[in-house]
Design brief:
transport, Amino acid/polyamine transporter I, two-stranded antiparallel ribbon, 70% helix, 512 residues
Length: 512
């Protein structure tokens, strides 16, 4: 037993070390001289994501910011279908959002503030604006390069725009992306989400975690058995309603504490540009901490550049890449600028009976609370009236988390399905019938993992999730950089921009 525990601890330590290097820029807990400024480590993924994001933003001539108003206008007409595809553009956006909005919005924001202080929220906003450029690129390329199966079903994503936009010689990149997607789907899209929803059901209703996992697995299977049309239909109904209710509750909480809002914004901006030295650090170390925390949590929340959301946008019923690109960038805006900001402002503004180290403090973000407990505590302080001994604020935040996580489980099942299908299609003799059998096997496996993951210790899984997200994002970001010229032309209204790499093959799809 002792040897087993030691081996387990060693594995966690090794995985944690790799995760800390990718997202924190440290190795064995120490900053690397060649990857640090004044002793403060620079996370490699932050450099890559922001670097490619800024390249695309500048190449687009700040299109996402200039066209944000047009994107919101298009939101009201996107419920109508005016092109080929599987679900309406609005349903595609809702599906993508259902994968984006989840633990990152309700718990990740608290983690960012804990690690980088209130200033991290400013850098989360900056990251979202850059992320909108990446999201536009993903959404527009998803429509420009997508597949049509022999029985008329549309589908796509990074694996498709890699093959059709870059050519067969980049098959290795597409497969690498799919392997990263499967890794990320089973870890962050399934196990972590299943555990979170089981915990929520246990706290609210006293349901044992294993039973909560079983209930969620059955409900998820009922939806995903119908494929992307069923998933899109559920997401289209749940996400707008739940997101709207959550934001409305946050706005009411802020109105009730309106007098403290100026001080909150002062904390955010002062923290973002605080040039005072951190303990044992250099002048400006506090800024570096805020940037690292804000960027990492912002990207974890909105998934911009990760390559997940274009899989959902590819099935939209539209033939206009620019239109769906705007929908995709709107998803990043809603996820981070709207929902994450509301969460942050409530935590930073609402006062209550909180403690830190045994001492009374005014706000949840100053307290000993961590993660979702910090978010839930802030909402409970804003709405303390109880229903069945549970504060209304806690009830709303918990139900929001459960529903957001449930829809995340639906959407990520489809992302994983697309990845495993692409790999299967590289096998000589693969058929559409074989794909459908594989889909069923995957859906059953997905629900089994939900049941297992609901009651597991996630210390190792969370760290594996950080690595899997990077493994998925890196191939996609390379593809976005290589296809950036096509993206710039798509933004100018050229619907057929870029080369077309097609080949007649006996296997599905018959396009490359």
């Amino acid at each position: 037993m002792a040897a087993s525990d030691t081996a387990g601890s060693s594995l966690i330590d090794q995985v944690t070390n790799v995760s800390d290097f990718i997202w924190g820029g440290t190795w064995n807990g120490e900053a690397l001289p060649w990857l640090s400024i004044g002793g403060q480590p620079i996370p490699p993924m932050t450099l890559i994501l922001l670097g490619i994001g800024m390249w695309i933003m500048i190449g687009l001539k700040f299109y996402p910011i200039r066209k944000l108003g047009s994107a919101f206008k298009g939101l009201f007409s996107s419920r109508k279908s005016d092109g080929a595809g599987e679900i309406s553009p609005f349903a595609a956006l809702s599906t993508a959002l259902s994968g984006q909005v989840g633990t990152g919005n309700l718990a990740g924001v608290a983690t960012a503030i804990t690690l980088g202080g209130p200033g991290a929220i400013f850098w989360m906003w900056v990251t979202a604006l850059v992320g909108m450029a990446l999201a536009f690129a993903e959404g527009s390329l998803a429509i420009r390069y997508r597949e049509k199966t022999s029985d008329g079903v549309y589908r796509g994503g990074p694996m498709s725009y890699i093959m059709m936009g870059l050519g067969k010689k980049y098959t290795w990149l597409a497969i690498l992306f799919c392997l990263g997607t499967l890794f990320s789907a089973l870890v962050t899209g399934n196990s972590i989400q299943a555990n979170a929803v089981a915990d929520g059901l246990n706290e609210l209703f006293g349901i044992e975690e294993w039973l909560g996992g079983l209930i969620v697995a059955v409900l998820v299977f009922i939806v995903i058995i119908g494929g992307i049309k069923s998933i899109g239909g559920v997401a289209e109904k749940i996400i707008p309603f739940m997101a709207g209710a959550y934001v409305l509750m946050a706005v009411i909480a802020l109105i009730l504490n309106f007098g403290d809002l100026p001080a909150t914004f002062g904390l955010i901006f002062n923290g973002a540009f605080n040039t005072q030295a951190a303990t044992g650090g250099f002048l400006g170390a506090a800024i570096m901490l805020a940037i690292r925390a804000g960027v990492a949590r912002g990207l974890f929340s909105n998934e911009a550049g990760q390559g997940s959301t274009p899989i959902a946008h590819a099935v939209a019923q539209t033939n206009d890449p620019e239109q769906q690109g705007r929908m995709a960038m709107l998803g990043t805006f809603i996820d981070t600028i709207v929902i994450c900001t509301m969460t942050a402002l409530v935590m930073l503004t609402v006062k209550g009976d909180f403690t830190a180290g045994g001492e009374a403090v005014a706000h949840a973000w100053n307290s000993d609370l961590q993660g979702f407990a910090m978010t839930s505590g802030a909402f409970a302080a804003a709405f303390p009236f109880e229903i069945a001994s549970v504060p209304i604020g806690t009830l709303v935040a918990s139900i929001a988390l459960i529903l957001f996580v449930f829809t995340t489980l639906l959407t990520w099942s489809y992302y994983g399905e697309r990845a495993i299908t692409f790999i299967y299609d590289r096998v000589p003799g693969s058929t559409r019938g074989g794909e459908k059998v594989l889909h069923m096997i995957w859906r059953v496996l997905w629900c089994v993992v939900i049941y297992i993951g609901a009651s597991q210790d996630l210390t190792l899984v969370w760290r594996l999730g950080d690595i899997s997200n990077a493994a998925m994002a890196l191939p996609n970001l390379l593809a976005l950089a290589l296809l950036s010229g096509v993206v710039f032309k798509l933004a100018q209204g050229d619907k057929t921009a870029g080369p077309d790499h097609h080949a007649d093959t006996p296997e599905e799809p018959e396009e490359y």
